[in-house]
Design a protein that fits this description.
88 residues, 4 helices, 72% helix
């Protein structure tokens, strides 16, 4: 009989090095409004995949696109404002 050995130690041996750094977590948190707006836009598109879009669906997608764009603009403005010397 052959024994089955788990490879848990080999898989998690480098787990400490694979964790996100504090700077990466901060970047994700800064980008979270953009991520959530993109998820909302994707959700609006998914709901229309198997049916003919109604006027309400069209408005939902338009609103989601505007929110996604506004979130990206806000992120870019925050990033530009935090650069030394200001935006060029």
């Amino acid at each position: 009989m052959e024994h089955i050995v788990t490879v848990q130690d080999a898989v998690t041996a480098f787990a400490d090095f694979m964790e996100p750094t504090n700077a990466e977590l901060d970047a994700i948190e800064r980008e979270m409004p953009v991520i959530l707006a993109d998820v909302e836009l994707l959700d609006a598109h998914i709901t229309m995949l198997d049916r003919t879009p109604t006027e309400l669906d069209v408005r939902r997608i338009r609103r989601a696109r505007r929110r996604a764009l506004a979130a990206r603009v806000a992120l870019l403005n925050r990033t530009a404002a935090s650069l030394p010397g200001g935006a060029a």
